[in-house]
Amino acid sequence: MRRLQSTRFLRGVLAGCCLLSAAVQGQVVVRMATNMGDIDVELYDEAAPITVANFLNYVRDGDYSNSFIHRSVPGFIIQGGGYTSQNDGYSRILANPPIVNEYDPSRSNTRGTIAMAKGGDPDSATNEWFFNLVDNAANLDYQNGGFTVFGRVLGSNDDTIVTNDGDSMAVVDAIAALATVNCGGAFTNLPLIAPTICQNITQQHLVIISGIREILNVQGDLASMEDFAGNSVALSAVAPATFANVAVSDNPSPVDAPEGVTFQEGLFSFQVDGLTPGGSTLVTLQLPAGYTPNTYYMYGPTPDNQIPHWYEFAFDGQTGAESFGNNFVVLNFVDGARGDADLTVNGQIANHGAPAIAIVPTPSALPVLSVAATDATATEAGLSTGTYTFTRTGNTAAALAVNYSVGGSATSGGDYTALGTQVIFPIGASQVTKTLQPVQDTLQEPNETVALSLRQSASYTVGTPASATITLTSNDTITRTVTVAATDRIATEAGLTMGTYTFTRTGSTAATLTVNYSVGGSATSGSDYIALGSRVTFPIGARRVTKILKPIQDRLREPNETVVLRLRQSPNYAVGSPGSATVTLTSND
Questions:
Q1: Cβ atoms of 583 and 489 closer than 8 Å
Q2: Is 357 in the same domain as 380?
Q3: Which of 473, 490, 508 is the endpoint of a domain?
């Protein structure tokens, strides 16, 4: 069987440029949206199918939303996929069962690759992953049966897919260049955008991954991708033809386009395999709703003009575009005929130019979308659910996919079943609903929120309200009690002897717990002793944590002074007795 290859520009939708090289091992690309920039990653779905399927399960369930890079070792790796961030702390991502190791020496731990993290067991990988900053093959290819590489970072210096203006590896390197702090446990090398001490870390300090989504997926004779406006574009072929080397780029057209034709939404290319020399095939382009194709342009040589040029790819009975629909067009290709850049019957169409579809947008026909919480409370008690209701006004003659993001203080997968990122209106429907299903647990928690916000799209207009919030209540009685005592009650400037406050909690230790406190007494923070902050966090499994009072050496003549630490009330715990503790600060002057 021979190969048919084509490259095409879509005016107002997509347009064609760069092809994947023969070294490409996958046809799935995901985009990690971080507060340092986007990272586009090609996944090796054919070479490492188990590992890629496991990773995509977490992606499609939204488990990596609001996760953060929790480990950075310059000259080695950066690691993520383990924890999500909330305003006042973090949660561990719930792990699915471990998978079988798929390490293969043909996929080595070289710079720019992504691999699964694991423990001592070769078959222990679950949800955590890392990017190799350098060539780590000599080390990681031989530990624990080898670390499974299942993809690689894409960038503007690649000879393969180019998916955005910048170099994704530059984003990875920028993260690796951040200063780190040692907060203990899994966070001994925690990178911070804004340096601070461990007790004061919030989301604004972390490298946050707001979400990971698929922007390209090729499966046989079907392919789907995301254009640069966030819209979905699909390809379908007629068997036995199959797609390969599908790529999206926002590069400009290679030469000036015909008057009135623009390529504002990027470049797009694909290749069709499975044809015999001189064979023909049909390819259908499915475009975003609200766009009506009325002609088709291509850039390249033609039988009557060997110099590459723009020409209208109108159907001539053999090749060209026909069957224009409200949001699709059918393209007729013949190997070696018009539309094939080499004009040779060799089983391969290699179009190095820029096809374009002239598209007429119909913004007045776009539906208006809104969302509301029609059942605004969900609770673990009886697993009472909440409901989001999506409403569209305007034309309902076609199905409509609506994208949204999910935030709030509750944790997806831990406090409620993941909501996904999309809802679909069937033909004729003006309303659809999404149910928020709480997860029953025994954790003592305050009320939390799940906020759903509509995302912009060229397929619809976002109206008001554009977001909705459901409150998630817990039926677990708070039985955790926290106390504090001065277990080292004297601190002195002589030898800088330090004092110690010991915090103790009772009840469940299955989750982290942040305890707030105030500091008073006759001593002065910052001049008599180093500031104590205002909170302390119990790690998972810990019943006791300590806070050290460190005096400041000076030459002032002072009497003994006190530093009093008092626990603050919280819905997350009860303050027991003693609820305060005093350390006496003595002077050697």
A1: yes
A2: no
A3: 473
